[in-house]
Amino acid sequence: LSNYLLKNLFPLSISYIAACAVYSSYEWNMLAKSQIFLRPRIEQYAEREPYEENELFYELSTEYPELLIFGRKIASRLLKEIQRYSACADLLENTDAKILFTKGSLIPHGFILARDCKRLAHLHDKVTRAFEALLQRASKNDTLIVGVSTSPRDMRFFKAIEDKLDLKGARTNDYVFLKMVLEDGDVTAPILVEKERGKEIKNYYEFYANIKGEVIKFEFITNEDPVETQKAILPIISSLITPSPFKKEKEPYGLNVIFEAKMKCRTYIQWIKRQVESAINYACIRLIDQMKGQVGQP
User: 212 and 241 in contact (C-beta within 8 Å)?
Assistant: First the structure.
């Protein structure tokens, strides 16, 4: 999110959103082929803000303008998820990939929307449709989609064992607990997730692995035996885990295919930003010239 004051006259806020999917084919543990799929497609709102009068969020821009930034952030996060699923779908439509790793949870979470907020609800519906379309494409291609979370904050695993192990003391999330008990190379059994973010999804599983001291969560959807699916995922994970090339990353290790996509995405979004800023700057110059030409006219 970038905020501008153009020519000291025009305040403007822009959310720059991009997604990148990288297809990598290996032969004898050597990279044989690579393809890049970039998004976005431009999203445009007809109104100044994604709210309409009589919606519950409309008052944010009238009576509570200091809260308006939260509405922008929600819209930006929803648009980001749409671009992520779209980039993954582009990859599956144009390659023969049999497994796809995506950064973050398979299902976006953290969205609490008012039902009457039509614009944001519409975006949320688009996220759901994009995810379902991706699952259909993956099923058609016989591709396994795996979500990779390097900073999980769920308590599902801890709650499952808390009573069985008669754990005493303060409750904690899965990441903190498993970081204390899992040794390097340890992996938990797949856990069936009956509901995720309030939605029922069939055959949705997750497991944790300690990789070089870092606890990483993996999520997948399968109609097969989840243990056998996990066995198919683990060797691939082991061969792709590398140190992070980003100095400021909190997690020192991750999947190199995700790191590659992240680097490509950063380059792409900077290019988008430069193009947009150039276009806006040119438009401002033209507008000011037009305003100067109108001064003194009846």
Answer: yes
Predicted confidence band at 113 (pLDDT cuts at 50, 70, 90)? low
Average pLDDT over residues 169-182: 85
pLDDT in tens, 22-55: 998 877 667 778 899 998 755 444 454 555 555 5
Name which of 18, 23, 25, 21 is nearest 42 in CA terms: 18
